[in-house]
Structures are given as C-alpha cells and as structure tokens.
Design brief:
Number of strands of chain A: 5
Strand order of the largest sheet of chain B: 3-5-1-12-9-10-11
Largest interface: A-B, 54 and 55 residues
Distance between the termini of chain A: 53 Å
Largest sheet of chain B: 7 strands, mixed
CATH class of the largest domain in chain A: Alpha Beta
Number of strands of chain B: 28
Shape of chain A: globular
Shape of chain B: globular
Oligomer: heterodimer
CATH class of the largest domain in chain B: Alpha Beta
CATH topology of the largest domain in chain A: Ubiquitin-like (UB roll)
Number of domains of chain A: 2
Distance between the termini of chain B: 63 Å
CATH superfamily of the largest domain in chain A: Beta-grasp domain
Helix content of chain B: 25-40%
Largest sheet of chain A: 5 strands, mixed
Number of domains of chain B: 3
CATH topology of the largest domain in chain B: Aldehyde Oxidoreductase, domain 4
Chain lengths: 164, 762
Amino acid sequence: MATKISFILNGDKISYEIKDHWTLSYLLREEMGLIGTKEGCGNGECGACTVIVDKLAVNSCLYLAIDIDDKIVETIEGLASTDGTLHPLQQSFVDNGGIQCGFCSPGMIMSSKALLDENPDADREEIKHALAGNICRCTGYIQIFESVEAAKELAVEDKGGKNG
Amino acid sequence: MSDYNIIGKRMPRVDSRAKVMGKVRYSADIKLHGMLVGKIKRSPYAHARILSIDTSKAENLPGVKAVVTGKDTEGVKWGVFGYTRDQQFIQTDKARYIGDEVAGVAAVDEDTALKALDLIQVEYEQLPAVFEPMDAMASDSELIHEDFPNNINIHVNIDTGEVDENFKKAHYIREDTFTAPEESYFQAEPYAVVARFDEDECLEVWCPNGGPHMKSKPLSNSFKLPLHKVKIKKIAIGGAFGGRSEICPADYICALLAKKTSAPVKIIFTREENTIATRQGHAMITTHKTGVDKEGRVLARDTTCYMDGGAYSSTGPIATTVPFLSMEQAYRMESVRYNGYRVYTNKPIRGMIRVHGRGFACGLDTQLDMIAEHLGIDPVEMRLRNSRQPGEYTNTKSLVSSCAMDETIHKAVEKSGFKEKWGKLPPFHGIGIGTNSVQTGFPMGIRGGSQSFIKFNEDGEATVMTGVVDNGQGNDNMVVQIAAQELGLLPEDIHLVSADTETTSSDPGSYSQVSTFVGGQAVKNAASNCKKKLFDVAAKVLKVEPDTLKAENRLIFVKDDPEKSIPIKKVVRISLLNFNSVNAEGGYWPKVDMKREWVSNPYGQMCEAFSFGTTIVEVKVDPDTGEVEVLEVTASQDVGKALNPLVLEGQFEGSIAMGGQGGMLTEYHEWHEGRCVNPTMLDYKLPLACDMPKINNIIVESIEPKGPYGAKEAGMSIAMSAAQGYSAAVSNAIGVHMDSFPLTPDKILTAIKNKKQQDTAK
C-alpha cells in the first residue's frame, strides 16, 4: 500500500509517497539518499540510526515512515549551516575527540541535541542517561560526555553573541 | 620547548569534520547504478556433509539474477599461512559450523534475495559435532578437518630450557587454572561489502578492512587475476579491533556474484551475521604453574593453554602465541615453557581481538597476587620485582630497547592512592592492579614493511600516498600529522590517499599495533626525502648550506636567522621552473628476525618496540546482588611518544571500556549445541554510556629510538592491563581470587557464598 505523507525535514516542507511498511531509516537512507543516518542493527539496539521526530530522539530503524506525517524530522544533515558552519554540538565533537570510527556519531549527536534542546543545562549524569541508548565501541564515551558538556558552553556563547 | 609544532599537540582529527556532518561513506552507504542485493545461505547445522544442493527453484524466481554454490568455485582453500589453508569461501563437501557459507544469491531487491535463499534446497547428512576443545581432542571425536589428528589445529611449543631444574630451586610453587569464554568485537558498523568488475575487467571491492593488501591476495588467487586487477578501495571503517584484517568469505561471494551477473552487488550483514560469520575471540582454558624465590621473583613458569579455535585456522598460529608474548614482554621469568593448543570445534571462527586472551592474562596476574599474598608482599611490589626493564631480552630473544614499565606502575600507584588504600578499604570495596605489554607488529615476510610516496603540487601543498589504514582509531590523522610536521606544512595542506591497493604500496595493514611504528615511519621517511629536495633548492636561493635550514608553517628558513626565509610554495615553483618536480618516496622495514616463525621457530627479534601499560581499578561490590560498581580507573601507558594526546586518551578510554568494563564484567557468548544464543547487542552486554566510571589517563613517554618521533603504539597495553586491573579489584573486594572470567554477578555471588561457608567452617 502506498500513502502520501507530508512532513518537515531539516526545515524543508516535504511531500512523499511511501509504502506503509517502510521504516523511517529506509525512507531517509534508501529513498532520499540521506546516508548520514546509519543503520547498525536494524532492531533498535544500537542507536546509530537516531533522528529527532517532534523533539524526541527516536530509532529510525523501528519508527515507521508513515508515522512522521505532519511531524518535524531532524537528521544529522540538517545541523550544519549551509555555509558549512558546524552546529555547536558538531564542532564540540570535533574539538574534544568525541569521534573515532564515526559510525555511531550521527546518532550520538542527534541524541545529544534532543537532550540539550530540552535541557540545556544537562549535567554529566543526565548526559550519561540520555546517551545510554547509543552504543559506541571505540571511545569509552568519556570524550563524548566532554563534547556534550563543551557544546553547552558553545551554545551559551552563541546566544551571548547574538544578543550582544 | 618542543622541537615540534604539530607532533605532540592536541589536534582534532582531520577526518572528524566529515564524520560529524554525516558525510562520510561506509561500505553499506555505496550506491552504484544497477546494483543488486546479495545474500548468503548459511549452514543450519554445526557439522554436516553436504550431499546435494538444488538451486533451480531459486534461479527461477523472478528478480533473481544469480545463485552461486561451491560448484562455481575452484574449490581452493585459503589460509593466512601455507600450513593453515583449510577454508573454502563456499563449502563444497561439508559445513563445519552454524553459519558456514553454503551458497549466495544476487537479486533485484532484499525481499527477493531472502525468498531465493529459502528456495535453495540443500540436502545434508548431519555429523557428530564437538563444541569444547577438550572434547574435540578426545581420541574418539569426529575429525573436523581430516589432516588434523585430535582436531589440534596449531600447537605452539616454546621452551627456554631449565624449567624443571628451576622449579626444584623454587621457594614456592603454585599451579592454577583459569577459564574464559568467547567474546566478540561488536564493531559499530555491521560488515558490508560491495563488489563489481569495471570496464577493464578489474575487480573493485569496498568493505571494512584492516588490511587492503591482505585482502587483495586471496581474491587475486581465487579469481586468477593479477594483483593490479584487484582494486580494494578506501572506504570509512566503523571499527575493527582485530576482527577485520583477513579476507571474509562474503568478499569472495560478493565478487563471484558480481562476475556472474556483470553487475555491482552489495551484501550487508545482519547484526547476527556480523557476530557469527566474521570472527570472535578465543575461549581459553589456561593453566599457569609458577615457581618463585623467597622474594617473589619468578624462577620458572610452565603454561598450558587450550584455545577453542572454532571451525577454521584464521590467524591461529598468531592468536595461539600472542597471549604468551604479552606475558614474556611484561614480566621477567628465569625460564619458561609454553604449550599452546588451538583446537578445532564446530563453532564460529576465532581470530585476533583487542584483549589477547583475557583468561590467560587475568589468570597470570591473579596468580601473581596469590603468590604475593602467600609471601606477604603487596601486589605493587610483586610487579616491580618481576617487571621488564629496558635493555633486556625476552625469553624468546627479542631485545626490549625502550621500556618505562616501572614508571607506569609508580605513576598509576601515586595517582590512584593505591598504597593508602591497599588493605584498608571497607568490606566489599577493593582495589587491584594489572600490568601488560604489547608488540608493534611481528615478522610478516614481504608484507612487513610500508612504503609511502609524496608529491608536491605547484601551490605548495602536498599529496601523501600510503597503504596505512584507519579503522577508526585515527591513523589518517596520524599520517597527516607526521607529514605536516616533517614537510613544514599545516595539516590542511596535506591531501591523503591511503588504504587503496591500486594507488598505494604494500603495507602490513592496521594490524598488531604496527601502523604508527611502520606506516608512520615510512611516511616520515618519504617526507624527509622530499624535504631534502626542497632544502637543496632553498639553500641556493638563500645562499646557505641545506643543513642550516628548517621547515615550519609553510616556510623554509635559516635555523639561526629565521628572518632569512622563503615560502615552500615558492621553492616548489622554482624547482618546477628548473625542470625538477618535487616528490619522493620513503619506506620502513622493521629489523626483525625473518627466520622467526610461529610454530617452527618461535625465537628471535619479534618487532622493534613494545609498549607497557598499568591499570589500577577501584570497585565496590554489592554482596546481595553481585553487581560491581567501578569507582575509578587509572591507566598509565608507556607509549614511546604521544603524537596526539587527544587521540591517545580516546584510545585509553576505549581500551578500558572494551578490556575492563565490558571484557571483565559483562561480555561473553552463550551457546546451545553450537548455536550462539546471544549474537545481538540486546543480549550481549556491551558497556553503555551510563556504565562508564571516572578515568584518569597518564601518558608516559620513553622515546623509543626507532619509532617515529619516539612513538610506539597507543592504548593496546591499556586494554590488556585494564582486564587484569578489573579482575584484581573484584577479587580484592570479595576476598576471593577469581579463576573464571568475566566476573558476572552469578559468579561473584557464588564466590561470596562459598567463602562465607569456608570462613564459618574455620
């Protein structure tokens, strides 16, 4: 069965004809070519495919594409500005070594974004809790925590700059 | 002041910008015109003769483009060594584990490919199967490979002599047996491979691999193609940890399907396939018998290890030896005998993994602690009395030139407050220490060296070509840092072409901690040769001698008179106007004993440098649940020279997560009749963000004279010592020396209960 859905993807209004059984990760990766979202298990275990739907971090390999109708979807491709300026979280992951093999990174950054959007002052324990669904086999997570913490500071500076 | 403006700096990795933007492509991300979906039919039986395969129904399914079986192959067996050629990429006569490759299909989409797999009819005759090495060695066991009596795949025997005599002189002797089951890599990226034959009939392959040149040879053999027609392409790799160096049967099957269909084919492994059909770590049963003098110095050790090798050899001779090597590098022994047996079983294939023999290593350190306790020595002193010293030879005759093992122990002890805490912590609260050492490569014959080419472009920027692979650990950045430092450029001026068999020279691959020491050194030498050419031109312009010059920040200047300078870009252009291009090559071949062989001659210089690591762990154990809370981990490694502390600390922390937190507390496989019952991330317990303790990193630099800028390797001896530190801390907390790893709550509760009963009986 095919259904036409409308949603906002990284700020753009999109209409797309999908098959009802498609997952969101299939729609993003295979249909729309947004390969930034990775698939590490296909069972909602590893978090590599995390994207944000209506402010909530979700495993796009389990989330049906049909369920994003009328919703707002954010993926890793939507974070940096078109001029190439990185989002504070992305910059912070680069500067603080939050990246090794990079496969879990898009999901990790999207989970971090969902957390900081909701709780800009998240402390270490809250960060650990929010990232518990994103498995990283390389880093031991410490530099990821440091990246998220440093991103909080960058975000505050950004706001200061704009207001000032 | 450091002589270096780039080496030793906390530099963000050159590959991380593209990675945080989601722009980096991994093998599964590749899309080619007309690409088909490939799937592999696997044996449902642990040991079975293949009587017949009927592919007709599958072939007739609309959308199926090709089906391949063993009949489509030459029946050639592959093995890393001449004497280990035991694996066909598609089985023709029998299947030896649940998951063994039996057939492959290529279809227009995944649904069709999966349906086709079901339509392939294989008639099997089930054979008796064995799942434990001790059973497999029993005389009445069915042979898994006919040429290997008692299913013994590899027997490594090392004997330095005088072992029995020294046992007689010993003041105290202990013999203990330690066990640990299999562990898995669980790389973030599931295995995936794309293959096609291009317009020149060259085979192109994209897959996560730790050694492109290691992959091209078996494919060249199988397809009877010259090596230049096998192009293993560079693609991002989502982690390896030792599990992605060898050829994977899927590489061959994918290429065979591409050949048969004249179309590109992509195979993506499920998470379960990644666990059972790539590699796993070996399960081990290790007996250490150790004799010491009154001061606790080891006079004699006799170690026997039985390793569950699974169905095929893989890197068996290496895997059987490396746990021993780590031991003899880390600790002095007057004499030692080692018998390592790698035994075939009807289980998935075992290869090299980050912690080489956790049961072996943790058993060794546990026994040292037991001996120390008997002698009334504390664990730190016990290690210092036996620790490796610079300038010594290992028992198998490798010179250890640089070694700061003692410094790693002293610094970790001081930072962790070990001395203040040892013996004074409250009940169920413990602290433990582990020390270890790893090698930077080993004799690899014609693939033991690396070569690099560098060319300057007319804009003063440079392209560096090297076979060095980045599995995720940061080797691309390592190479760029070295080239930029040596050429006097900035990292952004370097364009890297790497890990591609068409454009780069042979390299060992990212294997056995060899990349920095060998590959990095080759790049440094190439850059140095290139710089000489620049200096010759610049010296004439500046009217000085070339040896008075230095290159830094895109400038060449006179060391004693920095105002006298010329931009590198200008030097390149002057050179080109004088009919000379600026390029150079350089290589590095470590001076190892090429006569050393794993089984036939396990003596001689193994590699040129060894890293040394100490990890101290403090834990609290809940006596009601058996759960372990890790309070603090202090890791200290002699890395030679820290090329980039930011990257290095990430290696330490990842090593602690994998070797200690996961490897010693939660990670193991469970089996039912040869079937792995926890192949997924839900059932196999990997460390999560919320599990990680506080970590203190201590970098110790011994400046290895032969390493690039003095560097050795980054983090591996932490992975090993972390496992030992974790087990020692838990044993200390519960007052029982544990002999079965990992230390899961059930084992801890049983140990506490047994100890209570024993204490009451006393």
